[in-house]
Amino acid sequence: MVSQQTFRLSARPRGFHVVTREIMEQLPDLPQTGLLHLFIQHTSAAITVNEAADPDVLTDFESIFNQLVPENLPFLVHTLEGPDDMPAHIKAAMIGHSIMLPISEGRLALGTWQGIYLCEFRNRASARCIVATVYG
């Protein structure tokens, strides 16, 4: 059986945010076993899985990505939407727009310290749309 729904994550400031609980609240009851595919419908934000226990990890991710792809690079051409836009596209491409998670015993089979991240790369972002597809 396959089910699919689209929902919005609340707007967040630029940075990395653990959104596991918010996503789970939007989903129907999960099957005993299966897969959950999550796709973010935006080009300046990303979704991934990483450590959700220590908030310093979120800060470090933001710092590293800002060092890798800083704003105001003099050679960027796509600048109409502000100095954070093109770097946001690059950062989103580096992390990715979808994740696939296993479902076991009716729950996501995340590791002990893992959580789902919304990676927000714009300075002033709106709510972000997620397409969730459950296979099982």
Automatic annotation (TrEMBL):
PROSITE patterns: UPF0047. It comes from Neolewinella marina. This is Secondary thiamine-phosphate synthase. It holds the Pfam family YjbQ. Belongs to the UPF0047 family. Gene3D superfamilies: YjbQ-like (2.60.120.460).
